[in-house]
Structure formats: C-alpha cells, structure tokens
UniProtKB/TrEMBL annotation:
GO terms for cellular component: plasma membrane. This is L-cystine uptake protein TcyP. Pfam families: SDF. It is a multi-pass membrane protein. It comes from Loigolactobacillus bifermentans DSM 20003. Keywords: Amino-acid transport, Membrane, Transmembrane, Transmembrane helix, Transport. The chain crosses the membrane at residues 6-24, 31-53, 73-94, 106-132, 186-206, 227-247, 259-286, 364-383, 395-419. One of its GO terms (molecular function) is symporter activity. InterPro entries: Na-dicarboxylate_symporter, Na:dicarbo_symporter_sf. The keyword Transit peptide does not apply. It is found in: Membrane.
Length: 465
C-alpha cells in the first residue's frame, strides 16, 4: 500500500510539472526555453527518484512505466511522421527546382559534404579513442551488460544476421514502398529517399513533356507538404512534455554507477563530437560565413535535436532555419535536410561506430594503429553511413553493421549501450548541424545563397509553436 501511495505521489508531482509547462506554453514562453527547461527539470526529477528509490526498484519501474505514456507516445507520433515527411519534402524539392541544370551540382555537393565530413568524423572518433587509451576496452572491466541492453543488441543482430555488406546495400532499395512508408524495415528510411528521388526525376521529365499535368502534380505535392507540416507542428508542440518524460526516464533508470564507471567513454565521445563541430566551423569560415551569426541562427534546431534525440523530428525546424534565417533556396534545403536524415550522419554514423570498432578491435588481436585498419575502418564507416535512421538508437544499427563487416564481437557495445542516451543527445545535434551545413555549402556552390537573409540578424526563427 505504501508503495502504491509513493507511486501516486510521484505521478502527481510529474503531472504538476507538466501542468506548469502547459501554463508557461500558453503564456508564450519561447519554445527553446520550454524544451531546455523540461530537460533540466526532467534530469533533476529523475535523479531524485533514482537516489531515493534506486534505478531498478518497483517504485521507479512502475512510476516510469506510467510516465512513459507521455514519452513513448511522443516518440511514436514522431516516428509515424518520419517517412511521409521525407517523401513530401524530397519530392517537393524537385517540384520547386527552378534551374534543373543545378540539380547535379546540388546533389553532388550535398552528398560530398555529408560523406566527407563523416569520414573525418570517423577519424576524430578513432583519435579520441587513442587519446584516452580506450583501445582494448580495459575501461569496461568489471562492468556487465544488463538484460535490456542485450535485448536491443540481439534485436538488431537478428536483422543483420548473415547479411553481407553488398546485401545490406541492396536492402536500401525499396521493394514495397507502402511497407517502407510504414517503416517496417530498418532500412525503410533510405528506401523512401531513393523512391522519392526517382519520383522527383520522373516529375522533371513530366514537366518537359506534359507541363500541365506536371503543374497539377506539383500542386498536389504542395498540398501534402502543407498537411504533413501542419501535423508536424502539432506534434512538435508536444516536445516539452515528451522531453520531460523521456529525460526523467533516462535519469531515473540509467544507473549512476554505470555512468561513473563508463564516464571516460562519455568524455571521449564528447571530445570527438566537439572536434567535429570545430571542423564544421572551419568549413563555415572557408565559405566566408560568420560562425557566430550561423550558430546563433541554428541554435533552436540544435537544442531541439539535443533534447529530443531525433534528427527526423528536427527536420521541419531544420528546413525553416535554412530557408528563413540562412537564405538557402527551398529546394536545396529540402535536399540537404532529407539526405542528412539517412546519409552521412557525422555523430551516429561517423564518430560512434568508429570509436566502438577501435575499442573492440584489439580484443581480437587487431593492430589498431596500422594504416590498413584505419583506412578500412573509415571506408566501411563512411559506406555504412548510408541508411542510418534519424531517430534515437539509429547509431546502434549502424555500429552493428560496421562491427559485422569487420567481424568484430559486440560484447563491449552491449556494455556501453547502457549510457547511450547521454551520448546520443550530442550525436543528434551534430547530425542536424551537418545537414544544415551541407545545404549552406551547396547554396554557396550554386551561387543561390541569399546573403542579405544570411547577414540579417533580425530574422531569427521564432521559437514558439
């Protein structure tokens, strides 16, 4: 009875916090402040629960189980909208393309930026492992994977079991677009991207031969785009509440002891991710873009990505910032934003897989300082970055692809996955920043960047939803 009363009290406190958030939202508090505030309050509330009752007690488990209705419900809504959003955004990019001659240059520049930065990000991941002497996984001695972590690994392994790298690449292609729109496969996202590109190219052909019909198609796509973005806006308005529930769960159930034991890995990962952000800054300088102005404008998208851990859910804000604050053409923004969800994610598909592989390799006798290993690893990581999912946990699938290709065991990964949400927040922010950066570089390369919009400090995207 006492246990049930405690659970009810904790849930009432959570309800009060959510109620205060609703009140502040209605009073017009900025979206970014609400999200960041929910993050901080969720961490504090979750840690209090863990310190008082433990991370795996019945009280903690049942309280989080009820609170998870808010968090998991929010994530489920986001995941439902990912593939329709990608499809309408990418096909819409073709319908809005005014100069078809720039299509190849836009595509090549966006893909080159995403993939080359991923290759460098992988190198930073390797160097961070070396700098912190993590190779060989000695830092994980004395720790063991919990049942939940092992279940996640086994679930992903079952999908990849016996699949070679060429077969993985084949799996990127759609066989049933309706099934992929429903997200039934781990590679559904990249399949939708490929289908959307093919559809867009078909539209361009139709625009030449039957312009009237093409115009009707463009209007239809525009209607779908407006509808999907309207739904997205409703879902994004729930973000502060979803973030509070998700962060509370992580803070309450992620063992403080495990975080302390694996703290060196967290620090090494963040150092590598900061190095990637510095690389992005160098690219901005090379393109004569003021980094301070740039980060001031993209901050809302980065903080949203950090707290929500979903690149896909950040896409509407990503596109809004690219077009309204940075002066990037709508078509280019849609290309960069959509491709950035599934290709060359610097954090999830670059830094993280490279770090895990470099940590594990010495345990099976591989000399990680050899040029052959480094070259093979970076090449495989870059290639495997195709098809990475833009939702929380996508890095696990990509990393298992890399480990499987290199014939490396996954035992250490099952240990570090326990603290994955902490690292995933920064990984996601880096992913989103790279997709925005790819749009900016492509706009500069095609001479379509509106510098007046870019240099106008008054056109910050509104932080209210």
């Amino acid at each position: 009875m006492t246990q049930n009363i405690t659970i009810v009290i904790l849930l009432v406190i959570a309800a009060i916090i959510l109620g205060i958030t609703v009140y502040l939202h209605r009073k017009g508090f900025s979206f970014t402040k609400l999200v960041f505030g929910s993050l901080v309050v969720g961490i504090v509330f979750g840690l209090v629960i863990q310190l008082l009752y433990g991370n795996d007690s019945a009280i903690t488990t049942k309280t989080i189980d009820w609170l998870n209705i808010v968090g998991s419900g929010y994530v489920a809504l986001l995941q439902t909208l990912i593939t329709p959003l990608i499809a309408v955004s990418l096909i819409g990019a073709f319908t809005r393309l005014s100069d078809v001659a720039n299509l190849r240059k836009i595509g090549v520049t966006v893909l080159a930026t995403l993939l080359l930065t991923t290759a460098v990000a992988a190198l930073f991941g390797v160097l961070s492992v070396f700098a912190f002497h993590l190779q060989g996984a000695h830092f994980a001695s004395g720790t063991s994977a919990d049942a939940a972590s092992l279940a996640v690994i086994k679930q992903h392994q079952s999908v990849l079991k016996g699949v070679t790298l060429p077969q993985q690449i084949i799996s990127f292609f759609p066989t049933n677009i309706f099934a992929d729109l429903a997200g039934t496969r781990a590679t559904s996202t990249i399949a939708v991207v490929i289908f959307s590109v093919v559809t867009g190219i078909a539209y361009l052909g139709l625009r030449k031969t039957e312009p009237e019909i093409a115009q009707q198609v463009a209007k239809g796509i525009n209607v779908l785009d407006r509808l999907v973005h309207g739904i997205i806006k409703l879902v994004l308005a729930l973000t502060p509440y979803g973030i509070f529930a998700l962060i509370t769960k992580a803070a309450a159930t992620d063992s403080i002891k495990s975080i302390a034991q694996l703290g060196i890995f967290i620090v090494a990962a963040y150092v590598a991710l900061i190095a990637v952000l510095l690389m992005h800054t160098v690219i901005l300088l090379a393109n004569h873009v003021n980094p301070v102005r740039y980060y001031k404008k993209v901050w809302p998208a980065l903080i949203f990505a950090f707290t929500s851990r979903t690149s896909a859910g950040t896409l509407p804000l990503n596109l809004k910032i690219q077009t309204e604050s940075l002066g990037i053409d709508t078509a280019i923004a849609n290309f960069a934003g959509s491709f950035g969800l599934t290709i060359g994610q610097n954090g999830c598909a670059g830094v993280y897989p490279a770090m895990v592989a470099t940590i594990i390799a010495p345990t099976v006798g591989i000399h990680v300082f050899s040029a052959s290993f480094l070259f093979s690893l970076i090449a495989i990581v870059t290639l495997s970055s195709f098809g990475s999912a833009g939702v929380g946990g996508g890095a696990t699938f990509t990393t298992l692809m890399v480990l499987g290709t290199l014939n490396l065991p996954v035992a250490v990964m099952a240990v570090v996955i326990a603290i994955d949400p902490i690292i995933d927040m920064a990984r996601t922010a880096i992913n989103v920043n790279d997709s925005i950066l790819a749009g900016l570089v492509a706009a500069k390369a095609t001479n379509t960047l509106d510098t007046k919009v870019l240099n106008d400090d008054s056109n910050l995207v509104a932080n209210t939803l």
